[in-house]
Design brief:
58% of the residues are buried. This protein has 438 residues and is mainly alpha-helical.
């Protein structure tokens, strides 16, 4: 087991191609979160046009998670079999198609189908990013590289929510969906042109390639066993379930904020759409900074100085989720400024925990298994991603307030802390599968 980052940190390389790849992945996350959050901003207008209530909107918001979640394990296996570039190019085209279908919706049924399609389209994104980071970065840089794409998910709410709100106000919700469709198509051409595996990238210098490999990057290639056998082997590992369920509890709170924060500010705090979008930016901006500095830079800095890798990563995860319990404060206050303060504190803590969690699949996986572990992790996470918007919609529809929804998110976070601390164990590679242990 690796416990010290010092041994993992070779001399600085010539070239920074790996950071270009990390930036590319981060831009992709921003684009796909435009597609995800647009419905949360457009929800009041869609409710007005089609005469649907909060519970129905909750079902629409959750529909994305049904296909997104159910496909996580299959897309993880596809990524391990066919690679990041091939799977993601198909995925990105489908993101765009889902936006165009939504723009032409004639009622609940069309909207529901479009959200299911978006879930299919975006299912590979995070497992693919985690797998790509494993190939492109040494262990001592893994957390900050992961934080770049994970922080992009938070930063997308800083830029996407006010941008989409302006588009909805100016061009209507249909025009806003058309705009995100064209944005996805633009990213398709950029990704197709730029992304390669390290062994295939002509712009990667030999010095940088050696630096990446000598620092403990994931070895390219397929698993030593077939996909089904590897999956069967991995689902028996306690480490995988500790990670997956712990992360899913984080995911419940994250999905709650993603899908319902603008609606909460409009419905409970009586803000108009543009004001709610402005207030929504504040916690997401702090979350972006926390993600990069605490969940990214600080972890790599400490590991690089020789601190115990398991203790560093798990301490940041647990501290972040404990801070996330501040969500309970938002469920108690009726003051919009205090509510945003509690939400900002909660999201900042969760943001610090997220990249540390997403760096783990490539750090604990046997050869060729990072995509499958990432798929398992995000599959379980997606179950709570489905539950959060639907449960929140039910609570709001039946009680007329968001208080119970905030308290439930806090309780689920507490469960996640137990799984990360008690069940997962240390951050070390799972043994390679053999005929005797599958």
């Amino acid at each position: 087991m690796v416990t010290s980052g010092a041994a993992l940190k070779p001399p600085k390389p010539v070239g920074r191609r790996r950071w270009t790849i990390a930036g590319l992945l981060g831009i992709g996350v921003i684009v796909n979160y435009f597609d995800r959050v647009i419905l949360t901003v457009a929800a009041p207008a869609i409710q007005h046009d089609f005469g649907i209530d909060a519970l129905t909107i909750g079902l629409l918001l959750g529909a994305f998670g049904w296909t997104y979640g159910s496909l996580q394990i299959p897309v993880g296996m596809l990524l391990d079999r066919y690679g990041v570039r091939r799977v993601m190019t198909i995925s990105i085209v489908l993101w765009a198609a889902a936006s165009f279908v939504t723009s032409a919706a004639i009622g609940f049924g069309t909207l529901f189908v479009a959200r299911l399609l978006l879930g299919i389209a975006e299912a590979p994104a995070f497992p693919a990013n985690a797998k790509a980071i494993g190939y492109w970065f040494p262990r001592a840089e893994r957390s900050f590289a992961t934080a770049i794409f994970d922080a992009a998910a938070k930063f997308s709410n800083v830029v996407a929510i006010p941008t989409v709100a302006l588009l909805v106000v100016t061009f209507g919700w249909r025009g806003a969906f058309i705009a995100t469709g064209f944005l996805s198509l633009a990213y398709f051409f950029v990704f197709r042109q730029v992304y390669r595996q390290p062994t295939e990238d002509a712009r990667l210098t030999d010095e940088e390639r050696s630096y990446i490999a000598s620092g403990g990057a994931t070895e390219e290639g397929v698993a030593s066993t077939n996909g089904t056998s590897l999956l069967r082997y991995l689902v028996k590992r306690r480490k995988v379930w500790g990670l997956s369920i712990g992360f899913a509890c984080y995911g419940y709170a994250f999905a709650f904020f993603i899908f319902w924060l603008p609606g909460y500010l409009v419905q409970e705090m009586k803000m108009n759409l543009l004001t709610s979008a402005t207030f929504t930016m504040i916690p997401w901006l702090f979350a972006t900074v926390s993600d990069l500095l605490v969940g990214g830079w600080l972890i790599d800095h400490l590991v690089g100085r020789g601190w115990n890798e398991t203790k560093v990563r798990k301490s940041i995860i647990v501290a972040g989720m404990v801070t996330g319990l501040s969500v309970i404060g938002a469920g108690i206050t009726r003051d919009p400024y205090w509510a945003v303060t509690w939400i900002t504190l909660s999201l900042s803590g969760l943001a610090a925990a997220a990249p540390a969690s997403w760096s783990l699949p490539s750090l604990i996986a046997p050869k060729g298994g990072a995509g499958t572990i990432g798929g398992i992790m995000n599959f379980v996470n997606s179950i709570t991603g489905i539950a959060a918007p639907a449960a929140t919609g039910f609570i709001v529809a039946t009680t007329g307030t968001f208080s119970g929804a905030f308290l439930l998110a806090g309780a689920i976070l507490a469960i996640g802390i137990l799984f990360f601390t008690v069940v997962m164990g240390d951050v070390s590679p799972i043994p390679e599968p053999t005929p005797n242990n599958i």
